[in-house]
Amino acid sequence: MHNRFYINEKLTPELIGEYVSLSLILNHVKAFRMRKYDEIKLYDGYGTVYSGVIKYISKRDVTVEIISCKTALEYSPIKISMFLPFIASGSMDLMLSKICELEVQSIYPVIMQRSVKIKAKDISNKGKVERWSKISASAMILSGRNRMTIINNPMTLEESFSSCRFFDIKLIASANSKISLADYLNLNPNCAKARLEHSRSLLIAKFKQNLSTPAMAKRSILGAGSQTDDYTIPAAPFLKNEKGIVNIGCYIGPEGDFTEDELKMAENNGFIKVKLSDFIMSTFTASIFSASILSAYFFNDASITSNLPCKDI
Questions:
Q1: Which domains, from first to last, does the chain contain?
Q2: Under DSSP, is residue 311 helix (H, G, I), strand (E, B) or coil?
């Protein structure tokens, strides 16, 4: 039975044992034919989960008794950010919803020269961002995650480069690149180190909860400047900020690809061009494809986040 619901109302651990009125989820509760005394889980989108029991259901309200509160532990040092162009509104919403089901921590809608034109007033349109936040919350519930993907306000390409100035792994999709995304991930020593660090962090988190976990498979870490037949994989400086986070940024171009000036600007900001496929993809497909590849590569040891260690509050 579906009993997971997103709430944007402010709940606190002090409410444990109290009755809370949650009219915003009334329609969902009725749609899933939930009844009095059914168990329910409430997610705030930032890792906190409240467990409760339905006490009353009326025509205008639903009352829940809060039983417990847990927060999912931050288990991975890897944070993936996708920088995406504007496409047609309906396709944009669907694209965002699919990416938010993956292990992507943040999405940055970026205004590019060949992306779908948007009006100046839409750049600061709070309604658009609020709609995207609801899409992200729905994707979190559907995928079983405890944290929803943060979708930021639209920004220009120049502003986006400034926001990821200190990222550790910087990628930009380009059909003309000689380096494929798969080769870059498999041959770059920094990617292997980040993946190994994720596995180590996951094992530590599980051991702290006294969970039995299989021994971590040995992985070979290639040396810097690993070579294939016709090119050398560049090794970006592997940096970590003071919180020990590995930030990964990936840009996807609009229909018609990036302009030469945009690609040159990206390279000047430390980005490496990678080819997603031997075939041309639409922006919609390329965005979901690249997010899936990055999630599968860096998080292949992770179970669904709802099964990861939590701590009681």
A1: 4-72 (2.40.240.20), 78-305 (3.40.1280.10)
A2: strand
